[in-house]
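Q: Hi! First time asking for a complex rather than a single chain. Here are the components, and I think there are two in total. Is that enough to go on?
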Amino acid sequence: MKKNHGLLYTLPTGLWVTVFFLVPVIIVFLYSFLDRGERGGIVWRFSLEAYRDMASPTFLHILVITMLISLAATVLTLLVALPCAYYMARSKRKSLYLFLIIIPFLTNFLIRIYAWQAILGNSGFLNNLLIRAGLIKNHIQFLYNEWAVIIVLVYSYLPYAILPLYSTIEKFDFSLLEAARDLGTSHPGSILRVMVPNIRAGIVSAVLFTFIPTFGAYAVPKLVGGGKNSFMLGNIIADEILVNRNWPFASATSILITLVTTAALGLYVLANKSAARAAQRKKT
Amino acid sequence: MNGSDVKIEGIDKHFGDFHALRNVNIHIQGGEFFSLLGPSGCGKTTLLRILAGFESPAAGLVRINGRNILPLPPNKRHTNMIFQNYALFPHLTVFENVAFPLRLKKLGRREIDAKVEEYLALTKLAGQEYKKPAQLSGGQKQRVAIARALVNGPEVLLLDEPLSALDAKLRQHMLIELDTIHDKTGITFIYVTHDQQEALSVSDHIAVMNEGRIVQVGNPTEIYESPADVFVANFIGEANLFHGTIASVEGEMVSVEVKNMGILKVTMEPGDLEGMRDFQPGKQASITVRPEKINIALEKPPDLLQDVFNAFPCVVDEVIYNGFQSKFFVKLSGTGGNGNSAIKAFKQHMSYYSAGPEINWKDRVWVWWKADDAYLVEVHDA
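A: Yes, that's all I need. Here is the structure of the assembled complex.
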């Protein structure tokens, strides 16, 4: 038999992941159980202080706000991405649309957020347009609230949702919709009963690709958010590190974000497994 | 419900500049196995999709049992379709695929179970209930598609080249099964195919289509033996075609002068003669003779039947042995083998030992056929 060199081949990747991903996560995990240093850093003494601090009403409010904003952004992204991906997959100019989706990746993320400031600002493009059209007399405050954060988050993560949806819809056999129609469903019914279950993998990827980064968002709420309803967990981490110098609390918050996003992934895996088990049971 | 009568009246359909269907009229009797046969692009699938409700025609009517169904969306029509690629729902088991239309009707659990089992039994799928389509063979997928299309009790079953994805043996087998299911259910079947063998073997009637038109409607024998024009003669089975000028008409016997061959004699049935417009000497005529009706031998045929035999000396160009038959491609002696002078003759091997000496490549042979066995397909002005 040939010798299996699989382990050897995966060694570089394994090392890379261990050093640059696993080790930092372990450090953050450890820090969250230690005491804070006077001017930042940590003191090597076991403490649950950081997790106890999370019980504060302020923190819980931010946690709820973060959850609501990222859920709203995820749902909205999905609602916009689905028709886009559907249209792209059925279009004759697929590569043009794919190129258009990829264009934003060529520009810096921060610059694109600043562009939204220019669009939504009080003397920005949108207000000017509405005032000139005579629809409003005085400018509307679009920026620096939770809605601005949601809109810019939807914009930022839309391509990440469209691409996996597009790739599954493109492989979808559209004659299935005709078969469903032929067997008695209405048009929307055929989409729900036949298309959605068959592009489930794409939908789940789109949801995860949107929910995970928005749950840990930092720059978007920092630049277009404002007030207590758009301050998110990502902003806490930055503040705790840079302003309050409470490294353990920042670490604990990071761990919380990691746990929530991992839970989202875990739910997906569990759902898949139980579906497979149900199918297995039916067989026997 | 079963065996509904279908009337297609004056259907016209365009796709942009492409005229897909031109004034199509067909009357399909209730309970028939009716085939739409034609080469790809002839409009047969478009016509089927109009019946199913996936396309709407520019003009015309489709009546099922006298009622125009064109205003109805696909889900409100009592037609069900078997798709070329089966279109089984990959996320559902065999059972759920077949139960799909029943669940939409919100039938009770017991009723659904009973009906699904009934149709799975009819299509010989019992025991496969909990497999997903990806775990099935091509033939099994085909059966699921049939069960799913029939479980709703459609008035008309539409079949869009359902066997084209199967291999030849399985295709033959499924065709017989389809015919059995047709006999058991009594539903009107409308079967789209480009395969003339399939159409000939199971259909009650066939509509041959070409370039968006119905060229001929008839039972399989009529389509094969009395093709309406040169296109049908060529498309259905194999045919020898001879073009020439009518020399004389004596009763039922028509003599046609063909270049390189001389006079070809064709006996017509009185009905056929009346059907031909302006049927007089001097007109151009096309004659078809099926290759299996042509005799081939090394010796000249007996002279006494010369007035009803067409006999020609030839040279064998090619011999193809098929086991049950041999195909001889011959050309008239002293010609290049072009146009009229190339003849196909198929000889069935009826016994273990061949009846005479074997015919080989380059042999000088005689081919002959009875005037009865030729058919005058087209007559037109010079």
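A: Chain A is about 75% helix and 5% strand. Let me know if you'd like any chain examined more closely.
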